[in-house]
Write a structure and sequence with these properties.
Rossmann fold, 4-stranded mixed sheet, 6 strands
């Protein structure tokens, strides 16, 4: 089944129905979460649909301590099966000693986020991401399903607006990331995140808008 047909079949469904359908049609399913400000939406749905399924957290070793606390809170609240995934020790150490995030943030993200995810993708058929649409120009154009040359990407919430996401969080009384109340709207690594609305606090002062996980790289 091609991505166009999948998008047509899944488009009329609610996010919960999309997840239920996907787990019924695919076996090797990868779920990731950044445990950021909107992550609880996917995790709450997963709790209802298949709580025992592994949730992979890419621990760059640069996360805020509040992010780790939030991860532990949601895992305990919803009995989530969280698996920490880390970059290779020597490669991460190089970015730390080199201060790579300061002069080449794309390389830092590639070593500490993209490469660990690529290893996971190689053992799965479809990857579920809780990314919302409309937060960047790239995300506004993304379909529900997308093939990246290695794995089928599935974005069950890509049609959900920020307003709809906020209402979902309120109605279901979802716990908020501890840093959100202090002015952080989007939260990544400590070295590259400051307070700000939307994603303006990510890589502030640069043209960088994405960490690279959701950018499809050209295939050789």
């Amino acid at each position: 089944m091609n991505t166009k047909t999948l998008c047509e079949n899944y488009s009329p469904l609610t996010p919960t129905q999309r997840l239920e359908k996907l787990f019924g049609e695919f076996d090797r399913v990868l779920v990731t979460s950044s445990f950021g400000t909107t992550s609880a939406i996917l995790l709450h749905h997963l709790h209802k649909v298949k709580a025992s399924h592994p949730v992979h957290f890419i621990d760059t070793r640069y996360h805020f301590k509040e992010t780790h606390a939030y991860k532990n809170e949601l895992a305990s609240k919803w009995s989530l099966n969280v698996v920490d995934v880390r970059p290779k020790v020597n490669e991460h150490l190089f970015t730390r000693q080199d201060f790579t995030w300061a002069h080449h943030p794309d390389s830092c993200c590639y070593v500490n986020k993209v490469m660990p995810l690529d290893e996971l993708k190689s053992t799965h058929d479809v990857w579920i991401s809780g990314m919302l649409g409309g937060t960047t120009e790239l995300r506004k154009k993304m379909p529900i399903f997308q093939w990246d040359g290695q794995i089928l990407r599935f974005y069950p919430f890509i049609n959900m607006t920020e307003e709809e996401a906020e209402w979902y969080r309120i109605i279901h009384e979802l716990p908020s990331h501890p840093l959100e109340a202090t002015g952080y709207a989007s939260i990544g690594c400590t070295n590259c995140t400051v307070k700000g609305e939307g994603r303006e606090g990510r890589w502030a002062g640069s043209n960088k808008k994405e960490c690279g996980l959701h950018v499809i790289r050209s295939q050789a």
